[in-house]
Amino acid sequence: MTTLRRGARGNEVSELQRLLLEWGYNPGPIDGVFGAKTEQAVLQFQRDHGLTRDGIVGPFTWRALQSQLPGHQMYTIQAGDTLYKIALRFQISLSSLLAANSGVDPNQLRIGQQIRIPVPGPGPEPVLTRVVSGWLPYWVQSLAFQSVQNHPEIFHSISPFWYVMTSDGDVLSFPGAESSTVLSYARAHGIRVIPLITNSFDSELISIVLNDPVLRQRHVQNIVSKTVQMDYPGIDINYENLFVRDRELFVVFLRELKAALYAMSKLLIVSVHAKTDAAGAWSGAEAHDYVGIGQAADAVRVMGYDFHWQGSDPGPVAPADWVDAVLAYAVSTIPRNKIELGVPVSGYDWPLGQTATSVTYSFAVAKANQYNVPIALDALLGPHYTYMDIAGINHEVWFVDALYFGTLLDLVNKYDIRGICIWHLGAEDPKIYDAIIGKF
């Protein structure tokens, strides 16, 4: 294994963090970034095991970390073994076996290979093993921020909608941007504030900048300057509805931005449209090149929602079989430890033949109670119901509850990706946080 120290990034750092967690030390989220919390966990491990306390993971520290863990026994792979068969043999869950052997490729087992078998019993204090982030739209920032204040232990980072690009490459602020209340609270609780920049879903706006090298470089510098000036850990690029002809130029822009951010020790996160293949179901999805974006970005947020949207026919916001297919494609093109699934918590109310309005969980439940109609619960499609309003217009409502949200978390675990980003805070069923703790 490579010698690792603070500042290192990548899959081996993720493996280091998983090992530390299994030993009972808290390296922070399993995010592949060797930061202060991971370094502190390494120092504690080295102290407890009589190793040189330098915070550097060299051969001796690796050897100690990879020795038999407390609560585990070793097993040697034999002919015909699969992880599924081994899990059955030892009467443990496949997920716990995979978690105990995060560096093992289940499709490439070798006879004589050693793996760890978790032994049931008391373990270290549980911590979240996946990144949990959340988007805070500026138009409901106060409400969204309350969710963070109610559950500060849950969030690794938050991304408030604070900035919008312009056709001359500038970065303008939305109302409520750079809130000292949000910044001071987040920093006091160890939550990263990684603001979002949008192109307002404007294809032409981003196209003008991408196709002019001078404007493109000006935009890069403005983003980096803002990130450094405000001492953000990084930035979330949310440029949607691009022209397909700008697909390659968008990746060029991201590479240029990544290089400039990396020089300042800042992270690049990119939000992309969900799709199940390279072409996607519409032009905006096709214009997001998962391979190129995945190579340029430190993390990629796949917006796994709006299978049905405001302008579509009524239906589930993120049916589980579709999200499953979205993640299957995503992990085939982007490293798993870079992928965050954008998970919905809001829904839509469609008046018959009209455009839908967005609804929160509490609004959807209250509306069903108001009209005294039953809510059909569905763990794969989400809760839904119909009602007739006082004007005699029929409505169909689809939304998200903790049960359905938990199904989407199961898919995150299935594909072993980095974590989730919630769209959007303030709209959620309060019980989703119990689901997050239970699943992660």
TrEMBL record:
Where's the GH18 domain?
A: 126-440
Report if keyword Hydrolase is assigned. yes
Database matches in Pfam families = Glyco_hydro_18 (PF00704), LysM (PF01476), PG_binding_1 (PF01471)
CDD domains, per the entry? LysM (cd00118)
Which GO biological process categories is it annotated with?
Answer: carbohydrate metabolic process
> What keywords are annotated for this sequence in UniProt?
Glycosidase, Hydrolase
The record's listing under Gene3D superfamilies reads: 3.10.50.10, Glycosidases, LysM domain, PGBD-like superfamily/PGBD
The name this protein carries in UniProt is Spore germination protein YaaH
Organism, scientific name: Desulfosporosinus lacus DSM 15449
Q: What is the lineage of its organism?
A: Bacteria, Bacillati, Bacillota, Clostridia, Eubacteriales
